[in-house]
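Re: your question about Phosphoglucosamine mutase

S., sorry for the slow reply, the queue was backed up all week. Below is exactly what I fed in.
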Amino acid sequence: MRKLFGTDGIRAVAGEAPLDARTIFAVGVALAHQLKPVADRPTVILGMDTRESSEWIAATLTAGLLQGGAHVESAGVITTPAVAFLARKHGFAAGVVISASHNPWHDNGIKVFGGDGYKLADEVELRIEDEIFRQLESVTAPHVAALKAPAVKAEYRKEYEDFLLSSVPGLALGEMKIVLDCANGAASALAPELFARLGGKAVLTHAQPDGRNINDDCGALHPKTVAAETKAQGADLGVTFDGDADRALFADANGNVVNGDGVLLLAARDLKARGLLQKDTVVATTMSNMGLEAALRRDAIAMLRAPVGDKYVLERMQNVGASLGGEQSGHILFPHLATTGDGLLTALVVLDVVRRSGKPLHELIGDLKVFPQVILNVKVREKKPLLEITSVATAIAAAETELDGNGRVVIRYSGTEPLARVMIEAESEEAMRRHAEAIAGAIRTELGA
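Result:
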């Protein structure tokens, strides 16, 4: 079982284990050693988000990589999917991103992509973990103040922007007005130039990072922010990214939030109409709403579910040969275009569908009837198997018995935070909330931090 890697890399409070300088240095050495079969002196491409800790973490990780015999190049502040793209395009041995995605500024993380642009398989992460722990038996903490991150090569950002535009040939926004919430994160470094090349009128918000304002009441974690601004501006559409811009959520002209389920419905219909939806199948996760499943079924499109985490969605897609998948949270996978979820790419795809259809966003997904859903997050001190706790198992069983096919119960731990997530979906909002509170209460009593 992995101890350091969660569903999206290593993530913690910056400066505290496992993101203390000594462990970060060990991660660099271990990763370099694991890459040695790829090349005698493997080259790694590095990118980061806008957190104030990203620079020293990048410098420390680079020192470890160099110690392990690797060479490092930097794309500077750039999105996570950009690093995946660059790793694949240039044949780097690996791509590494310093980011904690949607987490608050004081957190940070390390995400690793293989040279093929895909996130590492669980078994590969486990091998790297084993090597990290071996390194920790002997390495000493480096003097961080004396370290420097590698010089940034600005051309990498331009290459990525060119790739994005080439993915939606002919897209021009014309008279469209859009609001872009960059979450004071990595999208802030790309969105202004990218959307200037598309025409239209882009209203940029939360695009002035100061190291501590990333995701602060903005971005994909707070989609109502961009929804309110979209309506106030009289804009046609709003887009909001998370800290590393590997996902995007939207707002329609009426100020309604459109999450990943809405994007999957819109994209599935467009791909099917153009004969590009392989197997007439979409892969979502256990968190996607039953309303999406029903809307897709009306268009003779099957929906399969995978565990939460875009890497697991991708695995299921590859197993069944699907050409579209994603998460309600806004990670959308277009494998014919990219190897990982990409918020900027998703935004361009949605804008392209809207432009070609001649219809506003709310019309394109107007028949998506969302079942009432509640998600409660419970902070926990440890992650014991929930069904082994009698009071929790009893509360879950009671909910499943009463809902009896007219709702869903999904209880899971976050892969990146010390949280248990309680999700219930039901036709009856009263029953939904009652059972969610009961299950969350039982977890809080037994495991609450």
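The chain has a mean pLDDT of 95. The first helix runs from residue 21 to 35.

Happy to talk it through on Thursday.
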